Amino acid sequence: MSNCENCSSNQNCKYHGSSQLYKKDGNTPVITLLGQPNSGKSTIFNMTTGSHQHVGNWPGKTVDQKEGECKWNGKRLIIADLPGSYSLSAGSDEEVITWDYISAGNADLVVVMADASQLKRSLYMLADFVGMKVPAILVLNMIDVAKGQGIVIDTAALSEKLGVPVVTMSAIRKKDYRVLYESIETSLTQKLKQVFFHCEIIPSFYPIILKKSRLCGIINIKVVFLNIGEKNAMNIINNITNTLKDDLSVEIKKGSKISIAAACFSIYAFQELKKQLTSIDELRFIFTSPTFTNEKAKKEKREFYIPRLNRERSLYGTEFEIKLRNELTQRAIAKECADWIKKKVTFKSNITNDNMAGFINVDDTTYMPVNGFTTVDLGCERGNNAYLMINKFETPFSSSYIDLFDELWNDKTRLQDVTDEVIDNITTAYTENSPDFIYFVTLYNIFNEFLEDISEDVLPNEATGFKESKIWGMLYNFQKDAVLAIINKLEKYNGCILADSVGLGKTFTALAVIKYYESRNKTILVLCPKKLANNWNTYKDNYVNNPIASDRLNYDVLYHTDLSRTSGESNGIDLGRLNWGNYDLVVIDESHNFRNGGKIVDDDDGDSKLNRYAILMKKVIQSGVRTKVLMLSATPVNNKFLDLKNQLALAYEGHTDYIDEKLNTKRSIDDIFKNAQKAFNIWSKWDPSERTTESLLKMLDFDFFEVLDSVTIARSRKHIQKFYDTSAIGTFPQRLKPISLQPNLTDIKSAINYNEIFDQLMQLSLTIYTPSHYIQPSKMSKYSELYGDNKVNVGFTQANREQGIRRLTAINLMKRMESSVYSFNLTLKRIKELITNTISTINKFNKHTSSVLNMTDISCVDDFDLEDQNNDELFSFGRKVKIDLADMEWLEWKESLEKDAEILDLLTYMVGDITAEHDSKLQELYKVIDKKITNPINEGNRKIIIFTAFADTADYLYEHVSNYVKEKFGLNTAIITGTVDGRTTADLKKTDLNTVLTCFSPVSKDRDLFENMPKTDIDILIATDCISEGQNLQDCDYLVNYDIHWNPVRIIQRFGRIDRIGSKNKVIQLVNFWPNVTLDEYINLKSKVETRMKIVDMTATGDDNILSEEEKTDLEYRKAQLKKFQEEVVDIEDMSSGISIMDLGLNEFRLDLLEYVKRHPEIEKAPFGLDSVVPASEDAPPGVIFVLKNRSDSVNIDNQNRLHPFYMVYIADDGNVVCDHLSPKAMLDKMRFLCKGKSEPIPQVYKKFNKETKDGKDMSKFSDLLGKAIASIIEVKEESDIDSFLGGGQISFLSNDIKGLDDFELICFLVIR
Fold first, then answer.
1. Which tens digits make up the pLDDT trace of 158-207?
2. What is the sign, positive or negative, of the torsion defined by CA atoms of 588, 593, 596, 602?
3. Distance separating alpha carbons of residues 441 and 425, to the nearest angstrom
4. What are the C-alpha distances in Å from 485 to residues 318, 498, 843, 1147?
5. CA 651, CA 665: separation in Å to the nearest integer?
6. Staple 1235 to which of 439, 766, 1220, 1267, CB 3.0 to 4.6 Å?
């Protein structure tokens, strides 16, 4: 880069060359306008330059740069309007720019503007020109206003004293400009001697200037300016080769009296001069702007309040003293400083809006200008000043400053004593802090932007009175947190998913949200599975067992299946007349039923119809009023992130731009989920030992977490136990180790076993479900057109659907065999009957006449919950698909059907001998029941729930178990399968779901509140998964899985019926029945069935994909999950195989903070560097949690840290990282657990810590740990860069210059001892 043409700089300097708007050519004078704001500069600039002006920005600043040109007497002049500033103390951007511009020699003449009506304030600027060699004239503007106030200025006397021309004018009067131009011309022509100003007391100065003034004698600033010529008046301290600290160290002596006027005071400046300051006689300190004063700034003046807050925080170190604060000695220094202040120092603060320049008086010596009393001003730290020149005056010149300080010090109208406030504030830096306070200091710093951004519109409006409602009073603390967070999310993002774990009372949480919106006159719809309708109806109807009847909730309840109906009545509502689009809020219970999204389905007439999801979106969400959506599900994600996206899409009506503009993300929600799924797919292929939830979280980026944090709430059972006070709630019952049983198939020695049955199953082709595979190629287009498959342009999709159904059937056969011989046999007979009837139709076929097969219509297969294995519809769909046998290779098909029929006959024969008496599994169940009833695990509790996946098995069990327990123990049994009303051996007039469950679990179902409810007890309940969700049956303490559901989530949901918070049972037991094969064999059997069906598909379609890697991985997954179930009861969030959103949201911390700040607004004044000490525990080893703020973006380039610029690291005493900065949720949870509610310091740990550190004087060990914590941040970042690169991600390998300690500011720290 070439040299600057205007100075000797070796590059283009800030104020030469390219930074000038009008090029300085050497012949055109540059006139610079300088003055305080509102002194008339801008008016003169506009009047002189007119339209010939340009406005830009000063380099690197947001401050306007104004230059223009004008002509006078044919001469061109460049006019530069410098930013208005009160002084040249190099504090604000404006002051820095002004100082730099003038000192760089850009101006040929400086026009110093002053307000003639307020000379007292306006002449302050001139005091800062000490040492500035610059030709100048003084313009006294607004002279008309001054005269109107009776002020008459003797300009000749003023000009004589200053040695510069003085012009009086009114900038708004054109005629006055002639005088100004002439003065400028004269000054430039005569090459007036350059002037720089010194200060001296001349008592007669103002009386001379203000003669005849009614203000004479009142204004007495005593400032005058002398021409150059005095020798030894001043020394320059450059703060490079000689620093202010060095000079003060010499000047301050024992018994010295010091006076300081400065913007701020830092304890670290005291530390630098401690030796000298402790021996002085007194120190008087004036804060030059309002600091620590009593009155509060108004909310609308917050822009002025923030700088004041920063000045007050400077007590504990400014932003440029971070390195000192990071040495962790703040506590000891603050203590010594406070003790010194109490003995030697008095603080006062300016309480006016008048600007005061800073200076220091030490005995008879003055230093000025001084901005603050900090290590930067002392020259010990660099700061952000280009230079920091300070002038040192000896007597007699210093006497003017000494007198000025004395006069100010005694002026009670200008100053207020703030010594006590300063001492109180410094004291906070060394007093013992409660852990609770440090937790909230952490939250305040991390989330205070949330407080500033928050609108009352998106917070729960307590004026509705919903907090006085009955439902609110019944909620536990964690549920109340969720309610407030849900309302916040619904208002801000229009939707929310509540994904709390099984048994945490999502229904009650949702009811409180409903109450809030009903209080605001909103119309609400609850959409739930039919089996849960009774729950929701109870809470809105005027029933005796409705605990919140007094809240008079009035929402509508409809079933998921009602979305597909256009007429008829449901739950008392006429669907034909229902205005679906008029609901303000829709609550969707078990929302995972909508995870597959909206797909177009073809009906038999070829017309398109919408599935339930699409109908919900179109009829309810998108039409009519703007609808908010609250979704409830313990399992919102099954095995892909798309599940979650589809549910969230309901909240933003399918229009991604609706939510993209509200989220604080860099990419669209579509891209975010696409990337998240890509990361999951890579992760799922890893070795099981590496495939942990933690490793997945590290692969997901900031945007994904931001989305989840914005629209989901998910807490686990462990989370509630760990991070909430559960004393009012009660506890979860203790889980006993699961009992795993593997009975033989039968006790008949010669009978078939599992493996032999599977060998036969492997021979089945099940082509009864794939007739379209046998359509002649020449006829294929006819059926493709008939069933609308050409619309999607992917071939004959009916055939693809059939393949899917056949695979499901094959797996279902295997599962039914595992469930019970009875169910397996029934299924064999059903399929055999279907095959026999089809063969009969083929045999009657005459190829000369049309014979149409009415085959299975499986176009609606997407609407079936394929996890529900009790789906007999898989074997008998409606007969709608019509295929003419004449169009088929019917002989080949018949041959395949006959082979299957033979195998089915053989299987039926082989299992036919296994009756109930010889069913080893049933006999084993009897033993389990005997043991439980004769030796209850909780005193007096004989209740058992037996779950099975199939209604056939449930019927079989009821038939035998009910007789067994009635005869042997006199107890009643009931069965619930969801298809029809229940049955029971109890003497009940009604056997509907609600009556049966109430008699089985009378306490949890509030039976005593019903007068008409039978008091008969049911002790054994046999059920399918129709009650595995949403039912509270915690009277029971013993649950038997008679068959293992292939999806482990279902097993957890089943157990959730009895494993509930607040249970009266001390312990609960899970019993699992497994097939009598090893787990490896069990998994392999399923794999073989899958592969077999694929091979059949391959031969029919040419598809050579046997088992994809994904499916193989999935099998390994299930194996690992099921293995866990043999040893323990696991929670959904603990299953490393699934995708959990439990530990991602940060909203509860924000709401924690919001509540705290309402009661403790003073937290914003908390200094940085505070600490507290808490006891260690099993989950929290001894160490330190550091809360840091990064001062550069170099660490978070790839947006991995959700809290950026804040970083939290938990480092153990041995230097190992317990929790790194990429796990903010886990870290905040730990901190909350360690701190929240502990509102007093804990003596037994802080005394030990103080002894260890010698009351904070020796913090070397902890400063070393801080260094290691910062090093770990950089190390983790580098590791994640490499991981991202290896994982196919894009990464910048440009050097990220992280210096370590200097890049991080310590906010606070928590010591664990």
1. 887 777 888 999 988 888 888 888 888 888 877 544 443 333 333 333 33
2. negative
3. 15
4. 36, 10, 67, 7
5. 17
6. 439
**What is the residue-wise DSSP string for 1241-1290?**
--HHHHHHHHHHHTTTT--HHHHHHHHHHHHHHHHHHHHHHHHHHHTT--
Q: Which ranges of 1079-1144 would DSSP assign to H, the alpha helix?
A: 1079-1101, 1109-1127
Q: ∠67-71-72 over CA atoms, to 5°?
A: 130
Beta-bridge partners for 71: 76
Rounded CA gap, 1061 and 475, in Å?
12
d(CA 168, CA 155): 8
If you search the block for the tokens 């005071």, which residue do you land on?
Answer: 265
Sequence-separated (6 or more) residues with CB below 8 Å from residue 917: none
Phi, psi of 337 (to 5 degrees): -65, -45
Whether residue 966 contacts residue 972, with contact meaning beta carbons closer than 8 Å, is answered with: yes
Q: Say which residues have a Cβ less than 8 Å from residue 261's Cβ, sequence separation at least 6.
A: 285, 286, 288, 356, 357, 358, 359, 360, 370, 405, 408
- Collapsing DSSP states into helix, strand and coil, what is residue 1003? coil
**pLDDT tier, 250 (very low <50, low <70, confident <90, very high otherwise):** very high
Residue 228: predicted pLDDT: 31
Q: What are phi and psi of 908, to 5 degrees?
A: -60, -40
- Is 923 within 8 Å of 1017 (Cβ atoms)? no
Q: Which helix (H) or strand (E) holds 726?
A: none
Contact present, 444 and 1161 (Cβ < 8 Å): no
Q: How far apart are CA 127 and CA 199, in angstroms?
A: 7
Cβ–Cβ contacts within 10 Å for residue 1092, how many?
A: 19
pTM given for the model: 0.58
SS3 658: helix
Whether 281 and 424 have beta carbons less than 8 Å apart is answered as no
Distance CA 1058, CA 1053 (A): 10
Those residues whose C-beta lies under 8 Å from the C-beta of residue 164, and which sit 6 or more positions away, are 136, 137, 138, 192, 195
CA angle 966/969/975 to nearest 5° reads 40
